[in-house]
Batch of 2 targets.
Target 1
Amino acid sequence: MSETKENILRDNQLTALGNLLAGYTHELKNHLGIINESSGLMGDILEMSEGVDDQISERFKKIITTIGERIAQANTMAKFLNSLAHRMDEPDSTFHVNDILLENIAFLVRFARLKSISFKENMQEDLPSINNNPGLLHFVIFRLMQKIIEQIESGAEILLSSATRDHDVMVTLEFPNVPDLSVTGEDPAQTDEALHLAMTKMNLTLSEECPGQDRRRISIVIPSR
Amino acid sequence: MNEIKLLIVDDEEEFATALAERLEIRGFMPETAFYGLDGVQTTATFSPDVVLLDLKMPDMSGIEVLEQIKEKHPAVEVIMLTGHGTGKGGADFIERGAFGFIMKPVNFNELLEKIDAAYQKKISGSQAS
């Protein structure tokens, strides 16, 4: 199969996956809606019931609160997944970089937790929206953070920052230094060809520096076009 | 608030009935419809003040139901219920005559406030005309 046809096939696969995921998360939210109302109704009935033992009543209230908290968490996850799904087949569009960062944190928390790695955010709140490819940016940030999580030591902290830089937006990832970690080298065999392709397509500028002996900082400038 | 007549139109029967029961406990007069067309017909027979309308149903889309309700009963206020993750389409609902929208899973207090605001708008509209 020619490279062009391979690309068409992959594009279509991605679009289909996006559609599937969008529908699936919608369905997931319907289920959460039913659980939410059923749990709420249970609480209402408990409130109205007379003669229920106080200890049992308190126990049930705690359970209902836990259900509510978990629904809220699952709803946030579904929301992020839904945004990602809708972005999969979206070409260049206007979006907020902080949304992409927050989504990535949500998706990577589980992997980070396995190594007791934590995230710290320092995001500029009034960041201007930019026009570029949000799906590709999601991929770039995810890939970088995944590599960092894999290679830094357990218990470390990754600081994610965003800020305006001229008319563009700059995202910074700062973490404890790993001498052999290479994510931006020119040799695809050593680094990551897909990452390079995505960055080229988005006109991203990526730089690495060591702000202190034990620290590493990766900065990505995302242009608005 | 107890004189407010509410119609809940949602194909998820368990969701609609649980929500109706919760609203009934709080003194509302709720009615349910589980299909879009049923929603349009029940609006004519039940004459609700406010309709809570799901966006996605198998027989008709919530937007189609909204348009039919507003065309035949312009005084009825409609609040859209959407499971869409980002609340996308909110401006479109308003443009087509909806009072507002609320995301699923529903924040119950937010829903009560929105129902009250929609009802106040309906009352002020009928007093003006």
Note: The first strand of chain B starts at residue 5 and ends at 9.
Target 2
Amino acid sequence: MSLETPLHKVEGLGSAHSGVTHFWRQRITAAALVPLSIWFAVSVLGLVGAHEAATLAFLSQPLNAVLMAAFLVIAVYHMALGMQVIIDDYIYVNWQKLFLMLLMRGFSLAVVAACLYALLRIAGPIT
Amino acid sequence: MADNPQRAQRPRPLSPFVSIYHWPVTMATSITHRFTGMGLAAGTVLLAWWLYAVASGPDSFNAFLDLAATPLGQVILFLVVWSLAFHLLNGIRHLAWDMGYGFSKPAAQTNSILVIAASILLAAALFALAYSGRGGYYQ
């Protein structure tokens, strides 16, 4: 006999009320980051010893700018999902958990915003 | 749980914690995955700094490169590169597990050792390429 209501069963969200959303997003972003990280490493190695003008020219190329933006956004999203797991695992006092979650998300948003702003100044119309 | 001062004389039974166990290599890769993830989170600040330096002209770019070239800067860069190599390779191992591959105890131990060795080799190889002048092909 199950104590679950039919609605609860059909929603399939379990006691976390979000189902496998977090788990699945962490895996999807991980899979996307495999080729993007390899592209990033090859690019940075190719820019070792380059002057500012050469680095600027490389990042200004549309394909490189788009790949860098994709790498930044997906990596920071993956980072926020991962840090959420760490906070969930080790912090069990509710107000501390809420505080750290907000701090972590604020940090993630600040980093991705700063990176995209710099990238827009490099490759876009903002100077 | 609230402390109970009347029971203080008798030690309460404790469940075994990580310090009790003999450390298998899978435990080492597991916690290292988490540590390298946190290290890479700190590394995003360096990435933002680098992009900002590129956007802000030759002076700030050269100041960033000068800092990166110091011994401390190189050590930090090596740790970030190794963290990315480890997190990438061990992440692929986790994705393989999720699809049901390599999850038996002997396989998990073997691919743990493989990931540790390959991540160190990969990071060292990237630094060797950079130091021997084989990097910089995009300038």
Note: Chain A has a mean pLDDT of 93.
